[in-house]
Each structure stands twice: as structure tokens, then as C-alpha cells.
Automatic annotation (TrEMBL):
PANTHER family assigned: MAJOR FACILITATOR SUPERFAMILY, MFS EFFLUX TRANSPORTER INPD-RELATED
Subcellular location, principal: membrane
Keyword Glycosyltransferase annotated: no
Lineage of origin: Eukaryota, Fungi, Dikarya, Ascomycota, Pezizomycotina
Entry keywords, A to Z: Membrane, Transmembrane, Transmembrane helix
Residue numbers spanned by region Disordered: 1-39
Domain of life from the UniProt record: Eukaryota
Organism: Botrytis fragariae
UniProt GO MF annotations: transmembrane transporter activity
A Pfam family reported for this protein in Swiss-Prot or TrEMBL: MFS_1
Protein name per Swiss-Prot or TrEMBL: Putative mfs transporter protein
Length: 560
């Protein structure tokens, strides 16, 4: 019975099934191995998996952490509680200029540290790293819940993002590999993805209801008891096997950490975000501050790339893995699709609350078509790939449908009827869902097992990096275009005052005779931001067409 349900059993020996000659030869031909690179034949797992009770408790903890990240964090869609309550936060702090930072502050450490945590999990206690990540995440949530100003809220988001990198890396890669046999992992990873989608769906509704009944701060307090329960369960029951490198000395561990790469990457991304956010809005593009930031960023980027080439397999991103066709195509594809989805989901609540006058709860309900479309697309894409065997066709379909859907969304107006914005969102979400997970499937199909963890974290890094860059550009567009549009259509209104007052206060701060023109200017600004999503979706076709055509059915022979 347990075998039918896919529950892990304690193996007598190795948990890896025999690798077929055909699969192994295919891998060797597609990626020539050097002596320093172990082949899949040399990779042997000898793990003693937890019994059913302990497995259920540990896996339940992973699901709890996934729900929290999906609800409060900044994930692929960000159509969660934070996106819904941002307009209310800007009203309280008078900080419409900081809208982009509420997501970016979370994403920068989450993106930069996900590979770093992946390294930590290879030679430190998995349980200890995961619990520490939980604690860091909860500290950030508490800071957000008690923030007296926009700056403190942004710092809290950054701390929470630091913890989330460890939680994501642990739940999706490290812990799953320690508690579930290889041939069962896709099933349980699929369950984790389903819970994340449920959290994304429930997030706006819960946030809208909680904010309407109490305060937006309660949304961050919700994660605290969940984190405490999860940590207690792991401390008591979470006995997991040692990692193969856990017995290394401290000096050896430190040498294996990509510390120098992280120290270069963090200021690089911060400078990039600042330049994209301030250029043309706070400062002109030829201002010495912007020029200096771009110059420093370029120098750091060149140094970072040179370091990766120098360190090769010890680099944060080993060049031989990044150059692999499916990995490189997946990086381009997920960067574009995730960025377009993030921007769309981030600014849709602003459209409904600012332009249409919806409450936080009504706004969350009106954005459900996007998330529901994403969920159905995810299931449909997974089923299609399972039946047909090829994931590339799903990715091409994503590029087509998302470009069409985002194009429709860029036509939203003050008086757009409900059937239209429902269909537009659903089409875009469905298109994203079909191919969103396929780059991760491609990596596991085309890359030798020994390289899969670093390849997956590289693709995940690209996904988050796309969100960071797109949100910074969108924030710049929002600030610049809103001021330009209002100045052109309603010169009698102080555009900077409208921008600083907050998103949901338009109807109370703008004179009635100018309100329609201001709303039209706001709507036009958001439409122009959605054009960024159109461009990104169109560019994603480079990644989808570049992907290798390999069947997961053939790949299973060597991966089960």
C-alpha cells in the first residue's frame, strides 16, 4: 500500500535504481566528462530514509514553510499578501516612491544567497541550516510587522529574504534528497509546488480580509506560530543523515564557499537596482551619481565573470554547466517569463485599487483569474509533458500565449469591463503556468546527476534575478511615466504630490473636477508598465526555441 502511495521505504542498500546503459551513454555523449568531473556511474547514494511517521512530520514542516513563503514572501508571482497590501502600506508611510523596494529588498538577498545556501547544505547539518533560516526569516517578518517607517519595513523584507533563500534551497533540493528516494522525488516536489500555488491563491484573499478587519501588520504575524511549530518538529523529529562532506574541517568548508563571488555580487545587484530605479527619475541619466554607479557596476560585473572563469568547477556558477545548451536556454527563458509574471502580478493590484477604486479584499478577488490560470496551466503543462514526453513544446506555447495575454493586459483602461480583464489575466496566467516549471524538468533530463543541484540553483537564481531587474525597471517606468502623463493631461495637479501621497488616496486627495483625468493618467502608466511584460514574453522565445528536444520518458530509464 505504501509503495502505491509513493511513501519512502528504508532501503537495504543504495537507494538508486540501476542506471541503464542507454541513459548513461546518452549523458556521456551529451556532456563529455573530464577526470575531475565524476560521471553518473560514480554517484552512489547510501542513505537511510526516515520511517513513515518521521517522514510525515518532516515533510509536513516543509509544506508549512512553503506555505509561509508563498503567502508572505516574494515568489514567482508575488500575487500574495504583500502585493495586495502594498497600496495600504504606501498610504500609511506616504511612500509610493518605495513601492519597488518592498519587493526588491526581499529578492536581492533571496537571489544572491540561494546558491550560497546550496553550498552550505552540502557540508553542514541540513537540520541546523534549515532551522537557522527559519529564525532569520521570522526575525524579518517581525520587523515588517512592527515597522514604524518605510525604511524599517524594507530592512525587514531584506532580512526575511535572506532567510527565505535557505528555506527554498532546503525544501526544494537538500531536505527532499535526504528523506525521499530519487525515483519518488518528482512526486513530492510536485506536492510542494501545489502547496505554494495554494498559498499564492489564498494569500490575496486572506490579506484582503485581514487588512479590512484589522491591520496589514497581522499578515506578517501569521507566519510566526507556523515557524515556531516547524522549528520544534525539526528539532525533535528531524534526524537526517549526515551530508557526504559534513566531516570536513572548518578551513576546508570555508574554502569551498563562494564567499568572494557573493561579496562581488551583492554590491553589483544593489548598484544595478539603484541605477535603474533612480536613473531618469530622482537623477538624470547623465548625473555623476548614476554614471559612477554604472561604472562601478560594470567593473564588478567584469571581475565577477572573470572569477567564475578562473575558479571553474569551484565557482558560484561553474562555466561548463552554464554553457550547457538546456541550462543556458532555461536561464534565458525563466528570466524573461518570471520577470514578466512578477511585474504583471505586482502592478495589477495597484491598477484595481488606484484606478478602479477597489478595496484590498476586492482587489485580491479581482486578481484571482491570474493565479487560477497559473495553477491550471501548471497542471496542464505537467500533464502534457508527462503524456507527450517533451517539455520544449510547452515552453514555446508559453512564449506565444504570454505575449498575447500581456498584450491584452496593456489595453486595460479605467472602464474596462470585467469579462475582459478576467479573460486577459487567465490567458496570461495559463500561458505562464504551462512552461514555468519546464526549465527545471529540462535540467534534470539533460544534466548528469552530480551536476543537477548546482544546475537547478543556477536556473532558480536566474528566475529571481529576472524579478529584481524587471521590478527595478518597472518602478522607474512607474515614477517617470506617471509624472509625465499627469503633467501632460492634468497640468493643474501636482504630479509629485500625487505620487507621494499613496496609491489608494487618489479619490480623497485630488479635486473631483480633475479626478477622471488623473485616473486616466494612472491607467496609462500601468499600461505602459505592462508593455515591458510584452517585450519580456516576446524575448522568452529565444530560450524556448534554444532548448534541446529530449524526452523525459527516455530520461526516466536512467533517473529512477
Amino acid at each position: 500500500m505504501s509503495e502505491k502511495l509513493g511513501l519512502p521505504q528504508k532501503p537495504a542498500g543504495s537507494c538508486i535504481a540501476p542506471i541503464s546503459t542507454e541513459a548513461t551513454n546518452s549523458e556521456i555523449k551529451s556532456e563529455p566528462q573530464q577526470e575531475s568531473h565524476p560521471t553518473t556511474r560514480e554517484v552512489v547514494e547510501e542513505l537511510s530514509y526516515p520511517n513513515k511517521v518521521k517522514f510525515a512530520l518532516i515533510f509536513g514542516t516543509l509544506l508549512l514553510s512553503t506555505f509561509v513563503i508563498g503567502f508572505v514572501g516574494a515568489n514567482a508571482t508575488d500575487s500574495n499578501c504583500v502585493a495586495t497590501i502594498i497600496p495600504v502600506i504606501t498610504d500609511e508611510f506616504h511612500s509610493a516612491n518605495d513601492i519597488g523596494w518592498y519587493g526588491t529588498a526581499y529578492l536581492i538577498p533571496s537571489c544572491a544567497l540561494i546558491v550560497f545556501y546550496g553550498k552550505l547544505y552540502t557540508f553542514y547539518s541540513t537540520k541546523k541550516i534549515y532551522i537557522c533560516s527559519f529564525i532569520i526569516y521570522e526575525i524579518g517578518s517581525i520587523m515588517c510587522a512592527t515597522a514604524p517607517s518605510s525604511l524599517v519595513f524594507i530592512i525587514g523584507r531584506a532580512i526575511a529574504g535572506t532567510g527565505s533563500a535557505g528555506l527554498v534551497s532546503g525544501s526544494k533540493i537538500s531536505i527532499i534528497s535526504l528523506i525521499v528516494p530519487l525515483h519518488r522525488r518528482p512526486l513530492y516536489q510536485g506536492i510542494i509546488g501545489g502547496v505554494e500555488n495554494i498559498a499564492i491563491t489564498a494569500g490575496p484573499l486572506i490579506a484582503g480580509a485581514v487588512t479590512a478587519a484589522s491591520s496589514w501588520r497581522v499578515c506578517f504575524w501569521i507566519s510566526i506560530p507556523i515557524g515556531v511549530v516547524g522549528a520544534i518538529v525539526l528539532i525533535i523529529f528531524g534526524r537526517m543523515p549526515d551530508t557526504e562532506r559534513e566531516n570536513l574541517s572548518t578551513v576546508e568548508r570555508l574554502k569551498m564557499l563562494p564567499t568572494s563571488s557573493i561579496l562581488l555580487f551583492l554590491p553589483l545587484v544593489i548598484l544595478l537596482v539603484l541605477a535603474l530605479s533612480w536613473g531618469g527619475s530622482k537623477y538624470s541619466w547623465n548625473n555623476f551619481r548614476i554614471i559612477l554607479m554604472l561604472a562601478l557596476m560594470t567593473a564588478l560585473l567584469v571581475t565577477f565573470i572573470s572569477l567564475q572563469l578562473y575558479k571553474q568547477d569551484k565557482a558560484m556558477f561553474p562555466p561548463r554547466i552554464v554553457r550547457q545548451r538546456s541550462v543556458l536556454s532555461g536561464i534565458v527563458f525563466i528570466f524573461c517569463v518570471s520577470a514578466s509574471l512578477y511585474v504583471t502580478a505586482y502592478y495589477l493590484p495597484i491598477y484595481f485599487q488606484a484606478v478602479r477604486g477597489a478595496s484590498t479584499f476586492d482587489s485580491s478577488v479581482r486578481t484571482l483569474p491570474l493565479v487560477v490560470g497559473l495553477i491550471f496551466g501548471s497542471f496542464g503543462g505537467g500533464y502534457f509533458t508527462t503524456v507527450v514526453g517533451y517539455y520544449t513544446s510547452s515552453m514555446i506555447l508559453t512564449s506565444i500565449l504570454t505575449a498575447i495575454g500581456s498584450g491584452f493586459l496593456s489595453r486595460l483602461r479605467v472602464n474596462t469591463q470585467a469579462p475582459e480583464w478576467i479573460v486577459f489575466q487567465a490567458l496570461f496566467g495559463f500561458g505562464c503556468g504551462i512552461g514555468f516549471q519546464q526549465p527545471y524538468v529540462a535540467v534534470q533530463t539533460t544534466i548528469p546527476r552530480i551536476d543537477i543541484p548546482i544546475a537547478i540553483t543556477t536556473v532558480a537564481f536566474s528566475q529571481r534575478m529576472g524579478n529584481i531587474v524587471a521590478l527595478a525597471i518597472a518602478q522607474n517606468l512607474f515614477t517617470n511615466r506617471l509624472i509625465a502623463n499627469l503633467t501632460k493631461t492634468v497640468p493643474q495637479v501636482n504630479a509629485n504630490l500625487v505620487l507621494s501621497n499613496g496609491v489608494t488616496t487618489l479619490r480623497s486627495t485630488v479635486e473631483p473636477k480633475y479626478l477622471d483625468a488623473v485616473l486616466a493618467g494612472y491607467s496609462l502608466t500601468i499600461d505602459q508598465i505592462f508593455l515591458l511584460a510584452v517585450a519580456l514574453c516576446s524575448l522568452s522565445v529565444v530560450g524556448s526555441l534554444g532548448m534541446e528536444w529530449k524526452s523525459v520518458k527516455k530520461g526516466r530509464t536512467g533517473n529512477t
